[in-house]
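Why predict the complex rather than its parts? Because the way molecules touch one another can change local conformation, and only a joint prediction can capture that. The input here totals 330 residues.
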Amino acid sequence: METKKLVKLGQLEINETILVIFVFTILVFIGMIFLNRYMQASIEKEKQDYEKGKTLALLEAITNMPELRCSAQGIERECLDSLKLLAFHENVFGLRKVSVVVAYPKQLNRPCSSTTYPACNEFLLYDNKPSLIIGEERISSPVSVYYPIDGVYRIGVINITRYIRG
Amino acid sequence: MRTLGGSMFKQIAKGEKRRAQVELFGTAIILVLLVLIATFAVRFSIGPKSLAEKTELKESIIANNAFNALFKATLCGKQMQELIIQCYFEPNAECGCEFVKQELEKIGQTVGYEYEFSATANKGVYLEQNFCTGDSKIAASPYKTSQNSILFEFTFRLCGINIH
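Output of the joint prediction:
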């Protein structure tokens, strides 16, 4: 009688343990689902932050590229050469658009090409737009643009637009 | 009697062991919770700061670029920097102080940024323009030069960007 009671008590305890383990497993499972979602969102945010940082780094890099920077007799200056802007054809900036718009003094509002230069205001350096985009992010900064033929400096705005692919 | 006492002792010892196990488990859970809380606290205290640092870096780059572009702009056949220095020596020249002030205002409006600019000669302010409507200001690195034994210092603070 005593043994039977002890066995029943033991079974009850095993059932209780199984139930606790079952509930604990469900809780861990739910926790993992939430953690996974949080991690995914966090990784996506990290990616966006990284891309933002990359665009910011490009702002520094583009204005310092020897292919664009103006120089006279081997001495580099803090400006972009308009003739170099016209001839620039690189394909290295990913899903972005890079353009320089001359804002001051006011120029004719039209894209620059070998036929319109220097009576134009927009130099399109690069544009790689994917077919499907869900948004755009833009960083702009004033830059000095040098016109070597006239020997004058104008104020431009460099725009770096990042396309967010859908 | 002896057998009953031994059995009771065994049961008490078993109960103590179980209680100790439960307490150990409780301590482990508390430790895990503390580690989780600490991890989240660190995560959230570091996050916004690095974002603020990035924004500050971006604004600092833009402020320095804006100052550089402003200073190099060619007007009346001279660069703005030369015109600002000329404003000290010949304030009433054709492209003197009034012209410089007008152009400084026009540049901010055309390019799309608000800024504060000041020029000093031997530490005395002789040209000061403030087009800021807000408070937040990001300073560009000041620029110093000397001419005719006079030390010129130019400061530029960017306070609003509205580039179209």
